[in-house]
């Protein structure tokens, strides 16, 4: 059998030494210092594994590397990136697109060697080419994931979910409370090759700090008082699947070290044990706060942030996509109607207007809660703003003669369009050239009932 070999392409990175001393004996190592030389060498030679060391790079470098790795995608590439490179979007795209695994510099030598060996085993199985995204997944189709909304920001979110789902690197989801971060994490899992394996969620803010270590990493019998038998932690329970860590900013600093180690080594050690266990789990983390600020205050490890933040996703607030309120409200209305015995027809136009005017600090969760409440409280056939616990500000204001004429014309046009379309709001809105949400708002403004 030919000896195992690694081509090291070292670009502008001073911290990383030749990995020779960590490699198992018998590996051949060739090092080049630029992409052109790498191309020349790869034209006439094959290597078991590629190792790309990236320091500070320009967009042109990124392009050249992209071409190189695209051209030699049959080789599994392991990356080592400086913190500076990790901050660069182009470099992050390289990770997603091409890397089998990646490390941050300063690199832990033995860990890097383990990565190279894993890559070699992977290449041996002939799977390196299959690292690429499957084209069928790139269409923005989320299968049956119920992420409701048709606003441009939600469509973009769906596209991002599909893109990141197939890539085996951590994801960090940002978003206000109740905006749908866990839903997004679940959608990523369901669209990934891990879909058939467990999705395990933990809220780092909800579990007492003293218990998180055992909860995440598990424990051995006798590790502490009350540990009567061995217990798997959540990471182990998610084997083959996804671990969702909500409110990652609340994770204590000591545990951040352990999590970082797990992300780099893919092994865990149960509390009370000294044996590392291999675990294959993808981590998706979420936070409502800007972790950069926590880093600045010394409450969050910078290296962990970079490790988690390779694929950042931002979930929009509900107030930034008010055009989705109509769809969301009716979706939940239908769902809860099915659960409830009493018949309610719909939201009244004043209720639609009130929902449109509200700022939704609690986002979709608040919308759900208000609709639930309204469906219990409502005494008529139509839900009112009062049922929702909302206030409907009138749009009547002081008007001049021209304003009055416009107002009357608008009111007439809405009446005509509704009458001409048998009171069907969708068709009436289309005729008027406005969205359904705008029609509801205008109906509220003119006191036209739905
Ligand atoms: N676009 C959406 N379509 C349908 N349901 C949604 C949408 N966004 C959020 N939800 C629902 O809103 C509720 C809150 O969402 P979720 O728990 O995912 O929010 P979160 O951002 O993780 O909240 P927190 O930060 O408080 O944990 C859930 O019931 C979720 O199913």
UniProtKB/TrEMBL annotation:
Q: Which domain of life is it from?
A: Bacteria
Q: Which InterPro entries match?
A: AAA+_ATPase, AAA_lid_NorR, Homeodomain-like_sf, HTH_Fis, P-loop_NTPase, Sigma_54_int, Sigma_54_int_dom_ATP-bd_1, Sigma_54_int_dom_ATP-bd_2
PROSITE patterns membership: SIGMA54_INTERACT_1 (PS00675), SIGMA54_INTERACT_2 (PS00676), SIGMA54_INTERACT_3 (PS00688), SIGMA54_INTERACT_4 (PS50045)
List the SMART domains hit by this protein, alphabetically.
Answer: AAA
Which keywords describe this protein according to UniProt?
ATP-binding, DNA-binding, Nucleotide-binding, Transcription, Transcription regulation
- Domain Sigma-54 factor interaction: from-to ranges: 147-376
Q: Which GO terms describe its molecular function?
A: ATP binding; sequence-specific DNA binding
Q: Which GO terms describe its biological process?
A: regulation of DNA-templated transcription
Q: Which protein, by its recorded name, is this? A: Sigma-54-dependent Fis family transcriptional regulator
- Organism equals Rhodoferax lacus
